[in-house]
Amino acid sequence: MSNPSPLSNESIAPSNHEATPRREYYDRFVRSLKGPVQFLSFWAAIALPFMYIPLLVQGLGDTTVIVTFVTLLAANVLALYVGHGYDG
């Protein structure tokens, strides 16, 4: 048989009294940003393809134009992904 410990298990367990309100605050903050971020991403995904037109008219012969085009394309894909859940 083992001797009972003078400390209860409750005194050994880590205290989460401060972590819970911080986590709730963080979750509320993230939820409050979700709507505006989806709104901006949705409309950015609609507007970004219009930026392709001058690049395509100019031609993709220059390296900086190609990099700009690929960057815009990546930004558009990201905006589509983030803004796909917006209900408008």
Low-confidence region ranges: none
Major sheet description? none
> Strand tally, please?
0
Helix content: over 70%
H-E order: HHHH
Can you describe this structure?
It holds the Pfam family DUF8028. Residues 1-20 are annotated as: Disordered. There is one protein chain. With 88 residues, the protein is mostly helical. It has one domain. The protein is built from four helices and no strands. The protein has helices spanning 9-12, 19-47, 49-58, 63-83. The longest helix has 29 residues, at 19-47. The mean pLDDT is 84.
In short:
The chain has 4 helices and no strands. Helix 2 crosses helix 4 and helix 3 runs antiparallel to helix 4.
Distinctive features:
88 residues, mainly alpha
Write the layout of secondary structure elements.
Elements: H1 9-12, H2 19-47, H3 49-58, H4 63-83
